[in-house]
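Q: My labmate handed me this sequence with no annotations at all. I'd like to see what the chain might look like in three dimensions before we decide whether it's worth expressing. Could you predict it?
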Amino acid sequence: MRPLTDEETKVMFEKLSKYIGENIKLLVDRPDGTYCFRLHHDRVYYISEKILKLATNISRGKLVSVGTCFGKFTKTQTFRLHITALDFLAPYAKYKVWVKPGAEQSFLYGNHIMKSGLGRITENTNKYQGIVVYSMADVPLGFGVAAKSTQECRKVDPMAIVALHQADVGEYIRNEDTLT
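A: Here is what I predict for the chain of 180 residues:
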């Protein structure tokens, strides 16, 4: 487990800023202690410094994971967020989309959100902006990318895709053997 390089930190923070903007500072400097990001087997973990010090007693080969997996770096060094980061992204999300109850299951199976399933969308959401997807009961379901801006969503037909799926809580069941 090692600290992220400057390039890795830059790539990861650019990805996180698409979803939570300037609130990245709130992830690192928390009132309950200092947290940091560490890389282990191409995966980025979010961990408190107190637990990090305890984890140094375990050899790298035997350590499976520690903290919360935020995502992983692909072979091309792009950063992919995992659904395990949703609990930390949702409270700080700048742009949100709420889906109707009938469209929740479709989203949880990995499908994009259609205009007919859109309940609400945050004002001034830009096209290709990172969004957090909520149910109408304000339960975070996943995250994705806005395929249309807020103004475009008002004018499109009901079968148009308004949000592209990236990750959802259904992945805990579909990919339980690969999530760490």
